[in-house]
Amino acid sequence: MNISKQIAQWRIVAASVCGTSHLRNKQLCQDAHHWQILSDNILVAAAADGAGSASLGKVGAMLAVETAIENLSSKGLTRSSLTNDADVRSLLNDAILAAKKAVEDEAVACDKELGDLATTLIIMVATPDVVAVAQIGDGLAVAKDQLGNLLALTMPDSGEYINETTFLTSPTALDTAQMKLWRTDIVNVGIITDGLQMLALNMVVGEPHKPFFFPLFEFVANAEDKTAAKEQLVKFLRSERIAQRTDDDLTLIIAAFNNS
Known about the structure:
The protein is α+β, with helices and mostly antiparallel strands and 260 residues long. The chain has 8 helices and 12 strands. Helix 2 (57-73) crosses helix 3. 46% of the residues are buried.
């Protein structure tokens, strides 16, 4: 199906690629992502970064994103059901709890410690009128409005020490979860895992880096062939420009709402 024939619909391109350090060590990519476009122009998306030190971090990440999106998709969401802030927060909280339970159940089934499936989690619900995000751990979620304002919906939770963060499996996960709602004319949204933080976030001022996101938003807005667009995104994430700045696994989800 040619995306250009869709009227007033989200265009989305997403990819997770293995970091160069994991490739060298013949390790799997620990990142995962999942998304769906529901009826009424509702986009639900999730990204997760399995802990590098966790033996089943990849499993935890995959379970978390798939369960969260499945939970949201089963709610019969409509634009009108997202008009109340408390209801939206409750939806996100339910999705987090479902993901957390799925990871906990898998740990029991595999006879593993819960920490063996440690993962971060970012969940997003977006319509042309509102974007809402819940985040546990590091990574970043952003949105852009019609006026070109770029907002960091969440910020990386990097803990007290370098390379430390909170995981979905942590006892404090729910207490430290970030939640943000932004009601405006939403044009673009994006999610990254922590491998891209050094490129996508201006650490000095704590703001998302427009030169990183804006070309990507323009790219997805003009992406008429989904397969080709994903290939281009994977190529970008594996490029020398990126590899020079980070050797971690990388996940990038970018979306544009096109009115024409």
